[in-house]
Design goal:
The protein is of the alpha+beta class. The chain folds into three domains: 3-149, CBS-domain, CATH 3.10.580.10; 184-409, Phosphatase 2c, domain 1; 500-682, Heat Shock Protein 90. Helix content is 33%, strand content 22%. The strands form six sheets. It has a nine-stranded mixed beta sheet. Helix 14 links the parallel strand 19 and strand 20. Helix 7 runs antiparallel to helix 8 (166-183), helix 19 (524-539) runs antiparallel to helix 20 and helix 21 packs across helix 22 (636-643). The longest helix is centred in the last third of the chain and has 21 residues, at 544-564.
Length: 704
Amino acid sequence: MIESLKAPQNRSSEFYVPTVSELALTVKTISPDTLVLDVLKEFQNDSELMSLPVLDENHIYLGAISRRHYLTLMTKAFARELYARKSLDLLLKDNPDIFTAPLIANGLDRIDQVMTEFLKLDPGLMYEALPVINGDGGIGVVKVADMMLKLSQTQGKLIDTMQQLSARLNEEVANAAALQRNLLRPAEIELLGVRGLSTLITSSEVGGDFYDYYMVDERWAIILIGDVSGHGIAAGTIVCAAKAGVNFLESEQEKEPHKILERLSNIIYNTAHQTLLMTMFAVCLDTRNGELRYANAGHQFGYIYRSMIGRLDALELGGLPLGKDPDVVYEQEVTEMDVGDRLFLYTDSIVEEEDDNGECFGYDRLESLIVNNAEQSIQDFSDNVLETLAAYLGRHSFTDDVTLLCVDHTERTHEQHHNPDTHSNDFELVRIVEAFYRTNPNPVSPNINRQNLVFLTEGNFSDLVPDLAVQGVRRILHRRDNISQHLGWDSLLKQHQHACHDDLSAYLHYPQHYREFFFTHTDDKAFIIQEAEAWLEELHLSDMDRLDAFVLLLDELIENGLYAAPQDSRGRQLYPKGTSRQLDDGEMLSLTIAIQDGIMGVSLTDSWGTLTPSVFLERLSRHIQGQGLKSGIGGGGLYLIWRMSDYLQLRVFPRKQTQVCVFIDLNTLFEPETDKSFQFLYHTEVQETVTGDTFYVTNSATAF
């Protein structure tokens, strides 16, 4: 049972800042002899209990146990087993950090004084509550969120008494603005796999714009941006409520954007009672595989600049503002973010600010600005946006708060620990049949792992590729062609279960003919192609049409390995096409040709691992739709390689290796216009296990 400590009865009609005792709560105290699991039950049975004071047998205060730190420790399996039957004093000796607090509040202290001191000691807001000792010896706790909200609410009274308390009031407003700034996380965003920068400019002392970010399980990066209707003291109150809510969600390690918005909407509703609303855009990036989930509560759409293909995509999704409905349900969408891509979020003032003629800056100018400056560093890019906006307006002041947030996906992360006893369903196979899809062209569920999804066709399917590409479908197999039977149908279906670094040998175990070439210089290309062509002529295994196609195929494969594969961390090409250079130390490029029972396999392997499914699918889609080469990017090579193969398989280990395998059936005529099977296997996890099970999509797949 939690009760409020007794509050003072008399208050002045002048501006008044509450003391800690007015917000403090009396809570059950415990002794060091309490069993560890009994303490755990206290927290589990009362979600509002943020701290438990510990007193000895003489009722002397020893310390306070933080809910967040205690639950974090006890969620670890070893902790429960180690301390299950032991008393609290032993646990506290081994883990003193859960027994300490940044400061002990005096019940007579004003909450603004306590919060100022608290933020100096705990700027990351790691503690949800502080222990309170009153003058009469009473022990209690005060929630940090309660002090934040109460302090924001008192700012309205502060404005009303401005004339009488001018000097004092100006100081308090400055303190309130400083407090709000201290609640925001650092502008420089440094999380595993991402790096970014937030810029927030308020149009008054206390603003209504908001941003936040945190990490879940060293894998998912959560990024939020929000905007309260209006600005000033009232908007600042909602910002404080949102920050308190986000801190709680972070402690619960909530990562789903739609759930984050639903929880915050309930908080804002109960704080403002629909007098003020807040828009918010929430993003969750899986830094292991680039999956980006997002949800929107009435905010401006976010943008992703896809650096490798030079395209700007809007994350279009709507939803009610926070605080409009306490029981609102938000939709959630999924896309992909490659290494080197940039996420851009902003508040509405950027597009709605007007020049002297009353014309808004607008979305078109913003989108052009993003595309034209996407290769700049985050700092230069952010500065450029603000400078361009100011130049358009003819002034450096804004009528509303302005916030922009840029985040780059810098690298894929990997799982640090692997439990061999954990059974995973990561390798369950999902099959979608072309005939059913054509009659029921419903979107493929975003929850299905695209690595495990196979689209099965029995004829030409290129007209479906653009639509399937948008949905990330990257494995398409023809069930009736001869080469599938030669290579082994079951083997083709199970490629997602393997992390093979030599697919050519895996398919062609006992080749009758075999050649392997290693590159040390770009000038090796012409010699190796001539050697391979002469070798095939000597074998008399192919007609001239096949031989000419083979030479063109080698040229495209090697060009990709020498010039498209080498990229920097932003996905930018390191060497212009045609550059003559020695391969760098540690850089590997090899070409292998094997022939077995009339099936020829050609494999090109590089040590860069920069090709991604989205780039491959985008190249195929452009050519299928007749758009051809893209200015400044090209990309015809991948399409030609697919057309000249009878089966194409790509396997990429990001930033480690790309392996492109082309298989040609020498027993059949060369038909470049026939749609060929392809599979793109993209491995983002260090550890992988096989379940051997098969999963069929309800109403859209079948066994065969």
